[in-house]
Amino acid sequence: MTDSKLSKDRHRLLASVGLLSIFTSSFVYMLGVHMLRPIMALYFDSVGYAAVMIGFFVSLNAVIPILFGMPIGSWIDRMGTRQAVVTGSLLGLTSATLFLIGSNQENIVLILLGQVINGIGAMFAWGSLQVAASLAANKQANNSKSNHVISNFSFVNSLGQLSGPAIGGFMSDWGGFQLVFYLFAGLNLLGIVLSTLLPGSYASTMKQMATDKLVKVAVKNKASDGTQRSNPKIGRNSNSEDNPVPTKKPSLWRSYGNGYSMMRYNKPFAIAILLNGILFMLIDVRTTFFPLFLSDMGLTNTEIGSMVSVSALAAIIVRPLAGNLMNWLGYHRIMMISIFSGATCLLMLMFQPGYWVLAAIVFVWGVCTSVNQPVALMMVSQTVAPSERGMGMSIRSMSNRFVQLINPVLFGTLTTVIGLTFGFAVMGVVLMGFGIVYHRQSKKRHATEE
């Protein structure tokens, strides 16, 4: 066996291990997040807080990520996936410790501090895992294989979304809320262990790509004229397309300017972020206030967790097909179908349907939101340069955190006045209105371009 073949086999093995570690780490992250979020709403409800306060408390994990999401994106680009995941997991472990101490001592301040810290940790961990998946997708031979990697990544995430609520509901019924907090701490420890197998930083990846290209150019030149030429574009401090390794550390304020420029001048990216935030409203309501709606119907925590998991079951079916759906329907049609279907599901809750009809509604609800993550990741991957991938993913996460901050507060205030049932209906009407406006604006834009 030649050295060249051994090198290729080793490269394939490392790439496979890297993908497996990315998928496993994302599953562990999603399992922890989707186990904890509905449980936190149920915990605050169990100690007697009104819906408006529950919405405020749940939204606290989004405050810091909104303010510092762009700098965190720049830090992820410099730190690399491994260090960023470790940082996020350590912060998650800290928040789990605060949840345990706060719930044991009935100290709401510690619980809320844990919410804030958990939000920061999630930005580091989830942002870096998205970057890792995006870079792995970019290494594929063509767009079809690249989209396949993103679809598989989203499919693995949906497994965590399916398991999390069910496990959290069962554990809280069996051993109380503290058992869920212990499990969340264990998942963050596991995340630290798994990070050792993740691919390296963006910078090291780009350096390796530049080195490989330099070798190929040298071999080609030597074969053509018998002399080895140097490539002046590739140098230690070069920032050309051949060697796009970032060498200048961006300042805190410069990162905000870079993020603003991406949103202002990259229209496809900006539209993808806007629609991502709109659809995330459906996801946030389902994980925060829908459990309270089910609790008012008399369901146990185990039944609530199982019902919420039905939406993730839909994601398991849909997400592997996300790449094909993107090619078949296109981004605009997918978003329109998702927005109107989700709005219809919210309106149907106003009639307080029976258990099995409710399960069917949740399944459709899951179908229309499950395409959001893979399609948004595809759009970011296709519209943002690799050197700015951390920033792009962080802006996407920022839009989600913005929804997690504003949506619970506004929706919690609304439902305190008119009740959960009518609150869902009002939100459904608002989403339908937005869908109609966006569709009309999109038609006008296409007509102008033609």
Automatic annotation (TrEMBL):
This is MFS transporter. SUPFAM superfamilies: MFS general substrate transporter. It comes from Paenibacillus agricola. It is a multi-pass membrane protein. Keywords: Cell membrane, Membrane, Transmembrane, Transmembrane helix, Transport. Residues 221-250 are annotated as: Disordered. CDD domains: MFS_MdtG_SLC18_like (cd17325). PANTHER family: RESISTANCE PROTEIN MDTM, PUTATIVE-RELATED-RELATED. Residues 18-443 form the Major facilitator superfamily (MFS) profile domain. Pfam families: MFS_1. It comes from the Bacteria. It is found in: Cell membrane. Residues 224-242 have a biased composition (Polar residues). The chain crosses the membrane at residues 12-36, 48-72, 84-102, 108-137, 149-167, 179-199, 269-292, 304-322, 405-438.
